[in-house]
Amino acid sequence: MTVAEAQAWTIAAVLKWATEDFRARGIESPRLDAEVLLSRALGASRTQLVIDMMKPLSPEELARFRDMVKRRRAREPVPYILGEREFSGRRFEVDARVLIPRPDTETLVEVALARTRRVSMCARVLDLCTGSGCVAITLARERPTTDVTGSDASAGAVAVAEKNALRLGAYNARFVVGDLYENVQNTYDLITANPPYIASGKIPGLSPDIVKFEPRLALEDGGDGYALTARIVDGAPARLAKGGVLAMEVGAGQAEHVAEMLRARGFSEIERARHYARIERVISGVWAG
Description:
The chain is α/β, with parallel strands linked by helices. It is built from 12 helices and 9 strands. It has helices at residues 3-8, 11-24, 30-42, 46-51, 59-73, 78-82, 106-115, 134-142, 155-168, 208-213, 227-235, 255-265, and strands at 84-87, 90-93, 124-128, 147-152, 173-177, 188-193, 240-249, 267-274, 280-287. It has a 7-stranded mixed β-sheet, with helices on both faces. Helix 2 crosses helix 3, helix 3 packs antiparallel against helix 5 and helix 11 (227-235) packs parallel to helix 12 (255-265). The termini are far apart.
């Protein structure tokens, strides 16, 4: 590459090129993705990109950006390329061993905190299917005097969660490898879960970003979309203290059926919470004991 060719690739030019490239490949947010990736490649904020639109990229900067563009072209999700995703105001490290945290799941945290105010100083919390640890760690950081355990069937996911806990200062959170309630013995004031709730037959219809890169174990329940949820509900009474709360994220359209599961198992004060898109996303109930 000559000096003249490098100078031709200004911030404005590479953003236009990447945006058009991504759009042609059916990527949903082409301009946003291009800006986020270029910000990382240059070590600059998106605001700085606007200010420096006519600044040319160095050959090294251009090479870094092109490598990121190649990964995004293959539909690798942006958080995996960056190695992080923001959740409830904190940056969590993520890779292909864990599901990428979604804004929807912040509703699960909000419900969990709201429904356990009475024990906010001394609660024992169990977070099932913890993945990156985003729920467990957020609860631990919001309530530093609580005792939080995160459990996941994937040893790789637990390794990511442990690293996030250390980096984010969640010293009251610990993590275990196990299938749901396996390897946890305490009784808890709160159990949270964001289990796999996508029916096996629906996986092929998901975005290539999800199907090709996110861990199948964290997406697919192996049945009709309720298999893992049913196991969580069935096992919760043996692990909840009297008055304890079970709060779970559910798939779109699953709220009524899961609420009925809770009623049938003896839970009371069942509530359904909507997330920002007004979809009923979190079901919670109280175990009377």
